[in-house]
Design brief:
231 residues; mainly alpha; A middle domain of Talin 1; 7 helices
């Protein structure tokens, strides 16, 4: 009997080679996506752009002398608003004292003066809004000039709460009890403190004005008259 080989052999098991041309378009794309069009790259570019814009917008901008002066004057306007009631009060108290020692108060005026002095003293203390706002709400832009404006706040608080308040308290004692040597001696000290602290405030504002070419407004601390009979 003649031998006939089988219809297929080992070789035939490997004849079916992989041919991409025979695959459908759904399983193999005919074009490849460029790297710069891929989603991960586009997302990364978007993130970098957002971060870059944020950094640019957060960069500090140069402040001109005019804009610096405007910022300082805005703060000084608030300071003067807070200072005004106490400035008026201590000026009034000094006037009452002068009228009293010169015997120029009538009986009715004298009685009214004692009541007004109580209100004057309150105007220079923390029981009113002026000092609270001055110590808590005034924000000074701390540029080179602004540091001098800010340095005026501490002596101004002292001028109001310590110097003026104490001076008015002394005047109240003198007018109430007529002869109080201790109060008179203390009033002489407070008068000097008022002048010295005022000079410190004015000197700071003067330095700010040197930096900003005279654009900074004054802090309106009154120049009080010398009290008669005070050594």
């Amino acid at each position: 009997m003649k031998y006939e080989p089988p219809p297929f052999g080992p070789k035939d098991l490997y004849d079916d080679t992989f041919d991409p041309a025979t695959m459908s378009s759904t399983s193999l794309s005919s074009t490849r996506s460029e790297w710069y069009r891929r989603p991960w790259f586009l997302v990364a570019v978007g993130v970098v752009a957002v971060v870059g814009i944020s950094v640019i917008t957060d960069l500090p901008t140069a402040m001109t002398p005019a804009s610096d002066a405007a910022a300082q004057n805005a703060a000084i306007s608030e300071i003067n608003t807070d200072l005004a009631p106490c400035s008026y009060a201590v000026s009034e108290a000094f006037n009452f004292y002068t009228l009293y020692v010169q015997h120029r108060l009538t009986s009715s005026q004298y009685t009214q003066t004692l009541s007004l002095l109580k209100d004057d003293q309150a105007a220079c203390g923390f029981t009113t809004n002026g000092l609270y706002d001055l110590t808590n709400n005034v924000q000074v832009n701390l540029t080179k000039a602004g540091k001098f404006v800010n340095a005026s706040l501490a002596p101004l608080v002292t001028w109001m709460d310590s110097d003026s308040n104490s001076a008015i308290a002394d005047i109240r004692l003198i007018l109430t009890h007529h002869t109080v040597s201790q109060a008179t001696a203390d009033l002489a000290k407070q008068e000097k403190f008022l002048s010295n602290d005022r000079n410190t405030i004015l000197a700071n504002i003067s330095q700010a004005n040197i930096i900003l070419g005279g654009r900074v407004h004054a802090i309106k601390v009154p120049a009080l008259p010398s009290l008669p009979g005070i050594a």
